[in-house]
Amino acid sequence: MYENLIGQEEVVRILRSDLERKELPPSLLFAGPENAGKLTAALETARALSCETGAAAWNCPCPSCERHRTLSHPDLLLMGPRSFRAEIKAAGEALGRSPNRAARFLFYRAVRKLTRRFDPALFEGEESRLSKASALLQTLDELLESAGPDAEDAGQAPGESAQAAAKALPVADKLEALLPDALPIFQVRAVERWARLAPYGRVKVAVIENAERMLDGARNALLKILEEPPATSRFLLLSSRPSALMPTILSRVRTYPFRPRDARASREILAKVFRAAPGEADLSLDEYLAARKPLPESATDEYAFRFLTAVCYQASREGVFIPDPLLDLSGDAPDPTVHKAVSDISAATKGFGSGDDSLSYLFPAFLRSLARLVRSRARASEPRTDAILALWAAAIRDAQVRYETYNLSPPALAERLAEALAESLRSVP
């Protein structure tokens, strides 16, 4: 077990020991930097717990291990926000260079890490949310038949697998845009119901990535589960910022620390897993994956700040009073008008992604950056500020709904949103 977890020998040793001695706790926290292998370790732990032979070798032929390897086991749930594009693109490139079964399997798992976030068990009572993703999920399932591990057995030519992988990337981008920025409370409640049902096999495992990105309601709901976890379930929390988790949650999990992968481990992963081209073989894994993102992750945060700056600056020029927690947003804006700010951001992002399928995730990501920026300005001692921020949060949610439901133009929605934010500044006394 854990044969495919490269560069984390110490945590592998501890996990193997806990599993062999049957001392694995009901709730675990895998803490460490991005790209350290936390999700790989979580998926391997889930497979080991369910293995029917107990050995859990990677090539174990038992039906449970076979289902876990393809991320199709009914006793596994994957939850939580994350960025999928870089891994899917890197796996698709590997498939193009070496169209063998191993590369197809790598690509298949990269996409399934995304599609499993839309398991019906996570949307019980919220089926309307899932319906928005159904067409994209169906398209990805069809493309995976041509790019997945069984494609060659079905008579698929190698070149067709690479073509299907290329077509899957923009579809995956659109699907990822439907994921919430923070784990919603309805999914935490859904996983509690799921966890209390009898498993199909030995044990149920819920994996929660970026567990620190939960709002208070979801945190409190998760805490209730961790206080009295069902005997046949395990909860694996993954976080690159464990200090942001509630102390009461931290007290109920056993932490397994993951360290940054060194240059040797990065080279091994790039060579063995992603089959990197010679010119990229000496990059770090972080650098390699970052190069597969059309824009750095900080870009939407920068655009969100520029957007709010223009809104506040223009309002202040109209004589609107700007409260102290928002004053830094009302200084000399680089774009003195909202229209100019929206136009410049739209030009830099091909219409907030509407003009390029590879950037289709951008407008939802921009809205999520706005929402984070708004939440960061909340001040308990500033009633007027909090009233404004509450209106801003509602306006951002409305823009998200209009984008998803009516497929309206992102630049037009951005203009509409800016006016709604400015009106909130004017209307709150």
Account of the 3D structure:
With 429 residues, the protein is mainly alpha-helical. It folds into two domains: 9-290, Rossmann fold; 298-427, no CATH class. It is 53% helix and 6% strand. It is built from 18 helices and five strands. Strands 2-3-4-1-5 form a five-stranded parallel beta sheet, with helices on both faces. The chain starts with 8 loop residues before the first helix and ends with a helix. The mean pLDDT is 87.
Number of self-contained structural domains: 2
Strand order of the largest sheet: 2-3-4-1-5
Could you say what the CATH topology of the largest domain is called? Rossmann fold
Looking at the overall shape, the CATH architecture of the largest domain is 3-Layer(aba) Sandwich
Largest sheet: 5 strands, parallel
Helical fraction? 40-55%
Distance between the termini: 62 Å
CATH class category label of the largest domain:
Alpha Beta
Low-confidence stretches: none
SSE succession: HEHHEHHHHHHEHEHEHHHHHHH
Determine the number of helices (DSSP H or I, runs of at least 4 residues). 18
Alpha carbon gyration radius: 23 Å
- The residue-averaged pLDDT reads 87
What's the CATH superfamily of the largest domain, by name?
P-loop containing nucleotide triphosphate hydrolases
The quaternary structure here is single chain
Inertia-based shape: globular
> Which secondary-structure class do the elements indicate?
mainly alpha
Estimate the strand proportion: 5-15%
- The beta-strand count equals 5
